[in-house]
């Protein structure tokens, strides 16, 4: 078998959100469209998801959640992480409270540790990798706590959401371009922290430009094209590279992660993390991603271009 040019982890995020999303993610895995999942342990169908992962031998990591729904820790009453109703502050609300200096990092740490422990209870092992729901793990201050928790639990891999070619994604609406630019800025500033704690991540990240209706065969090919063009020399010179033997191993394939959100859309009042399902999960975009990822044209493209789907545990 020829050496692959790219080892690609295709991660289905939000596993556990509801049973319909769970089943869609499993169907996508069985069809060869994804190779890895990231579990929301505070979601209402997390136990259902963990059982499906075990039965279908799906590689699984933790999608740490500090922004949506209810906390896992039982010791956060009156916490700065929570609003008056006892829920997390939300995607932008979390960022606003953090920016105002009102979040206690000791409470962030307590919740992250509680979520890792809950993952171990559900899955029976430490996660192979750990990333952040809505990219909270690369935010200032949070990233230091996040890295410490990963180091303490021996979790080797995370996600650094810096996407090559994202600046060419002019088809994205302006509010998404602004949000994605801030995510990339935060991610760049996280690199030194993750290095310091010995945490690793794939050479290339993809997914910000191919979410929802923006996921298409041409857009996936375009995004993956940047990965295929990335020679090992490019990777070594990239600020993202962290593999100690990269400079000497001239035959090492480029590693990449594609973040995706497939599934059968949530029904109203079914699913979520304690507040019910959001518009994102109820959107037809979830089924669109599912169908695109398992499209025979996409799967054939992987084979033709030497892209081998794998999981973090295969690195």
UniProtKB/TrEMBL annotation:
Keyword vocabulary terms for this entry: Carbohydrate metabolism, Hydrolase, Magnesium, Metal-binding
Entries under Pfam families matching the protein: YdjC (PF04794)
PANTHER family (UniProt xref): CARBOHYDRATE DEACETYLASE, YDJC DEACETYLASE FAMILY MEMBER
InterPro entries: Glyco_hydro/deAcase_b/a-brl, YdjC-like
GO molecular function, one term: deacetylase activity
Protein name, as recorded: Carbohydrate deacetylase
Coiled coil region boundaries: none
Listed cofactors: Mg(2+)
Biological role stated in the UniProt entry: Probably catalyzes the deacetylation of acetylated carbohydrates an important step in the degradation of oligosaccharides.
A Gene Ontology biological process term: carbohydrate metabolic process
Family: Belongs to the YdjC deacetylase family.
């Amino acid at each position: 078998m020829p050496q692959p040019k790219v080892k690609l982890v295709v991660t289905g995020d939000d596993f556990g959100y509801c049973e319909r999303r769970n089943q869609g993610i499993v169907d996508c895995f069985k069809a060869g469209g994804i190779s890895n999942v990231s579990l929301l342990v505070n979601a209402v169908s997390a136990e259902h998801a963990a059982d499906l992962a075990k039965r279908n031998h799906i590689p699984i990591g933790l999608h740490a959640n500090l922004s949506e729904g209810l906390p896992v820790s039982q010791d956060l009453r009156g916490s700065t992480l929570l609003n008056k109703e006892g829920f997390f502050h939300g995607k932008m609300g979390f960022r606003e409270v953090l920016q105002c200096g009102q979040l206690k990092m000791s409470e962030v740490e307590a919740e992250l540790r509680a979520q890792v422990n809950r993952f171990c209870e559900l899955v029976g092992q430490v996660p192979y990798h750990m990333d952040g729901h809505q990219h909270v793990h690369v935010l200032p201050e949070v990233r230091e706590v996040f890295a410490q928790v990963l180091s303490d639990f021996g979790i080797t891999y995370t996600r650094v959401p810096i996407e090559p070619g994202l600046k060419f994604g002019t088809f994205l609406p302006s509010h998404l371009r602004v949000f994605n630019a801030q995510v990339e800025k935060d991610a760049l500033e996280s690199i030194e922290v993750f290095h310091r704690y010995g945490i690793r991540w794939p050479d290339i990240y993809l997914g910000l430009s191919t979410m929802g209706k923006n996921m298409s065969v041409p857009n996936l090919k375009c995004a993956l094209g940047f990965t295929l063009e990335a020679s090992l020399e490019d990777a070594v010179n990239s600020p993202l590279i962290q593999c100690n033997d990269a400079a000497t191993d001239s035959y090492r394939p480029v590693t990449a992660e594609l973040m995706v959100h497939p599934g059968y859309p949530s029904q109203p009042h079914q699913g979520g993390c304690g507040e019910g399902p959001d518009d994102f999960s109820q959107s037809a975009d979830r089924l669109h991603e599912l169908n695109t990822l398992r499209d025979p044209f996409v799967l054939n493209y992987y084979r033709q271009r030497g892209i081998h789907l794998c999981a973090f545990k295969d690195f």
